[in-house]
Amino acid sequence: MAKIIAQMKCLNIKWVVLFLSLYPISLFASTPVLLNDNREEYPLGRYIQLLEDVTGQLQIGDVISAEYQGKFRPSRIKIPNLGITDSSYWVRFDLANESAKAQSYLLEIAYPLHDKIDLYLFDAYGNYEQKGTGDIYPFSQRDILHRYFLFDLELPALANRTVYMRFQTQGSMQLPMTLWKPEAYIEKVNIEQYVFGLYYGVMLVMVLYNLFIFFSIRDRAYLYYVAYIACLTVMQMSLNGFAFEYFWSNYPLWANKSLPVFVFLTVFAGYLFSRRFLDTRNTIPMMDILLSALLWLALLGAVVSIVLPYSLMIMMSAALAIISPVILLLAGFICLAKGGLSTGYYLTAWSLLIMGAVVYALKGLGILPSIFYTEYAIHIGSVFEVVLLSLGITNRISTLEREKIIAHRALQLEQKIALAFEKFVPKQFVLRAGKDRKGLEFITPGNVEDGYITILFSDVRSFTEISEPMTPQEVFKFLNSYLARMQPSIQKNGGFVDKFIGDAIMALFELESKQDSAYSAIQAAIGMQNALVIYNKHRRSVSYPPIETGIGIHSGDVMIGTVGSNERMEFTAIGNAVNVSSRLEGLTKFYGAKIIASRETMDLLPDRDMFKHRILDWLRVKGKTQPIEIYEILETDSGQMQEAKIKAEKYIAMGLQHRHKKEFDRALKYFNKGLKLFPKDEALKFHCKTCAQLLKNKVERNWDGAIDMKSK
Fold first, then answer.
1. For domain 439-605, which architecture applies?
2. Per-residue pLDDT tens digits for 167-218
3. From the centroid of its chain, how far is CA 683?
4. Hey, what CATH topology would domain 21-180 get?
5. Under a CB-based contact definition with an 8 Å cutoff, are residues 498 and 521 in contact?
6. Domain ranges of the chain
7. What is the pTM of this model?
């Protein structure tokens, strides 16, 4: 009994000594963390007290004073998460070593994105030891080289210590603090290495696997997917601290910028992949516009994150990471409703990843607490996502192969029909009709589309006189010989013949842009006139008289489609622009021109001076009420003739100005003056004749200066 009493006295003395050692700081102290030999891990979240330093100017001497001791507030959650804040935070907690021997512990802050952490370890007499770390310093300056922040704490036997810590960051203020025995922490690190090794191994395998698919079939969807996985992986490594530890350990400035950069790049690559995989450009064009805009916004965010404040860009990247999943899921559901290829895999995979991304983003903003799932939500979701999408890719390949075989067979049949059809109908019309999934055999009258095109009309002058002495066989032989020489220039320049109307040709130019169409039509007209020169040499060699042609070119809106009945129909272009083009061809004989182009066509050229030209007139063609300005293309005239016509242009232009003002006598003066200098200029002859008639005939008061052509 005496022995038991002695032991109890000894135990009481220990507690008295411990109490007396704690007394000097017990007035404001929190509940101490009681350390003993039986526990290896001590989560500190519910033991710490917090003080917000809004100005960031408080020093250790300030916070240990009585004025600020009462301002500390206890934390009531396991892992405090204060969200994105500009404030600094002070943390206070007490440690009491119950063991009869000295203990060594590791203090872990399991959030690698704090800019600066200062630790002050106080003993019972008010003396303290100071340590510091943070990701604003090179990684090599850490006392313990680890992706998380670690402090080595030595606690004497039966002693207490008060710890003050100051946290400063531009991002999310998260405080996952744990005290570990070194042996237990080493075991934890070993387990984490296996877990993260498995995770990053899966991501690497998925990168290599999808790269192999890309090089096999050259579908950019898989290249975008590889870019997405790579960006997601680097983003995860930035979040986990691995990127700073292994990739840019000596570049803390970039380490602080890299996270929002790779968040934006991950979103950017995700949009690229989704647009390609879902084929939103064709399936949901309006949604594709939105996805494209967000895609470029993400890329812009990645660029400006390098120069703009981290706190702003991390908030913007988190916001975009929250908005994007909703939009991508909506796009996936719409594509699923339209029978999109492998969309089920897409929705399932992205739903899991998106759930993880949203949870993690909300945790980063302080809306959700930091627990195991929220901490590793992206990792969990991304593993399932990459695996499911890879299965979706495999399914997509097999489905595409099956559809490719079916499409190839259908294409072969379509090509046979088209080849036969093209002998009577222009290829471009066949392609237009082929866009209808029903096929060419279901074409009906009235299938029309609108478009802005350039129309070329060509006609042989005095064809009636040329053909009158010919037999019908000779007429056909002549026409086929002539038309065969004209068509190649049209095809070479991207146009196609809509129809042959006896000796006349109606050709349409509908290229990628209006500018290209206008340019190509004029080039085709020049080529046709050059081909005519060669053809006339041949005619002279066999004692046939040479022929002349006129070409009119105009650009405008038309309707292209089928006309006729169910038994007999044809493709054609109909509209005011077609009629104007035909009338311009008829004007060539009045002005002695080979090629006449309207102002509408000339204005489409990048530069009018690409072709030598001159203004001819301002007039109303037969059957039209709106006046039109016309120009003569001079490229096919001889050099001497070109020079003369260009010099004569100023007299035409001045005469037209006075004619427009109803000053017909002055206009005629300029026309006559030009004609004296250039007596062979047919355009000046026509203007003199027309202006003389205007002098005789009274014009209306509101006359707009345009002459009315009564003949074709």
1. 2-Layer Sandwich (3.30)
2. 999 888 999 999 999 999 999 898 888 888 888 898 888 888 888 888 877 8
3. 53
4. Immunoglobulin-like (2.60.40)
5. no
6. 21-180, 193-401, 439-605, 612-624+634-712
7. 0.53
